[in-house]
Specification:
mainly alpha, two-stranded antiparallel sheet, single chain, Arc Repressor Mutant, subunit A
Length: 113
């Protein structure tokens, strides 16, 4: 006999079930993607490169590489990346930063002056 699913439907911050907020405009908060984009912008402005490990540490973001790809497709960005090998462990990872053209686009997206 099949058991009935008693789970409650997912709800947004406003309490309305069935409607999902993708960019936080209803409750005036930034979506996770825009928070990560803002973080990448801030780190690039400081001359630092971003990694998935750093994003997890600072943003609690577990899908950084996927999120970068989604941001590129959604906003027409070309976020450069470079494969780097860690000399102590032998493992390799990607470093990300914003190009000069992307910095101008991100300023407009995030309304930064």
């Amino acid at each position: 006999m099949k058991k009935h699913n008693k789970k409650m439907p997912l709800q947004t911050l406003t309490g309305q079930s069935g409607k999902y907020q993708t960019n936080g405009e209803n409750n005036h908060t930034l979506s996770k993607g825009l928070k990560v984009l803002s973080w990448i912008y801030d780190w690039t402005a400081q001359g630092l490169n971003c990694t998935a490990f750093d994003s997890f540490k600072h943003n609690s973001d577990t899908i950084f590489t996927t999120r970068v790809s989604m941001l590129c497709h959604r906003y027409g960005l070309e976020i450069p990346r470079k494969r780097v090998k860690n000399p102590s462990t032998g493992n390799s990872y990607n470093e990300y930063w914003l190009s000069d053209n992307d910095i101008i686009k991100v300023k407009k997206i995030l309304n930064k002056d």
